[in-house]
Structures are given as structure tokens and as C-alpha cells.
Write a structure and sequence with these properties.
This protein has 101 residues and is mainly alpha-helical. Helix 2 (30-41) packs across helix 5 (88-99) and helix 3 packs antiparallel against helix 5. Helices cover 60% and strands 0% of the residues. The chain binds heme C. Heme C binds next to helix 2, helix 3 and helix 4.
């Protein structure tokens, strides 16, 4: 009985330690994030209805628009909420990604 309890505690501790030692999930790449963007913006050169296309979008303008949406300096219906999900580094990676589409 007592031994069983010790084994159980040992297993729980080992599991917890393993959990802590496990590597953090990899941060999504710009390409992965971009797949979400094209749902609304349309693939490649298309654009979609009045939502502008992002292919060949100038990198500087992307950074300006995304940080503007995120920080509440640019009016938006939806991009203000979407942009909040991204760090400066991720926005820069997205800008580089779309500039070369
Ligand atoms: C739910 C649909 C939706 C998704 C998903 C979406 N967008 Fe948008 N995007 C819009 C709309 C709508 C606008 C127009 C501004 C507004 O009303 O929010 C816009 C505007 C923009 C603009 C400004 C375009 C211009 O020149 O005026 C940029 C840049 C942009 N989005 C980038 C992105 C990026 C990068 C992603 C992916 C991280 C993304 N969007 C995901 C709907 C979306």
C-alpha cells in the first residue's frame, strides 16, 4: 500500500518534470500565419471583393498598417482585432513574406 503510493507519487513527479522539460511548441512561421490572411484577402493576386490583395504588398506599408491596426491608430472593422495577435517580429516576418509573393 505504502509502496504503491510512493510509486504513484514518483510517476506523477516524473510526468510533471517531463512536461516542464518538453520543448515549447514551435512558433508559427510567416507562411502558416499567412494562410489565415488569404481566407479573407484572397489567394495570390486575387484580393476578394473590397478586401485588398496582399500579394506584393509593400513591406513598409504592411508594417505600418498592421501596427496601426494593432495599436488602435487605424480605423478597422476586423483588422484591429486580428493584428492584436501579432508581435513586431511576426508582423515583420509577414511583411517580408507577402512582399515576395
Ligand atoms: C476575417 C477576414 C480577414 C482576415 C482573416 C485578415 N484580414 Fe486583413 N483586412 C480585412 C478587412 C475587412 C480589411 C479592411 C480593414 C478593416 O475593415 O478591418 C483588411 C485590411 C488589411 C490591410 C490593409 C490593406 C490596405 O491597404 O488598406 C492589411 C495590410 C491586412 N488586412 C493584412 C492582413 C494580414 C497580414 C492578415 C493575416 C494575419 C489579415 N489581414 C487577415 C479582413 C481580414
Amino acid at each position: 500500500m505504502c509502496t504503491q503510493r510512493i510509486v504513484l507519487v514518483g510517476t506523477v513527479l516524473a510526468t510533471a518534470a517531463f512536461g516542464l522539460a518538453a520543448p515549447a511548441p514551435a512558433a508559427p512561421t510567416a507562411e502558416t500565419i499567412a494562410r489565415n490572411c488569404v481566407v479573407c484577402h484572397g489567394p495570390k493576386e486575387a484580393g476578394q471583393l473590397e478586401i485588398p490583395k496582399l500579394a506584393d504588398y509593400p513591406a513598409r506599408k504592411m508594417i505600418e498598417m498592421m501596427t496601426g491596426f494593432r495599436d488602435g491608430q487605424k480605423e478597422a472593422t476586423i483588422m484591429n482585432r486580428i493584428a492584436k495577435a501579432f508581435s513586431d517580429e511576426q508582423i515583420a516576418a509577414l511583411a517580408a513574406y507577402f512582399a515576395n509573393r
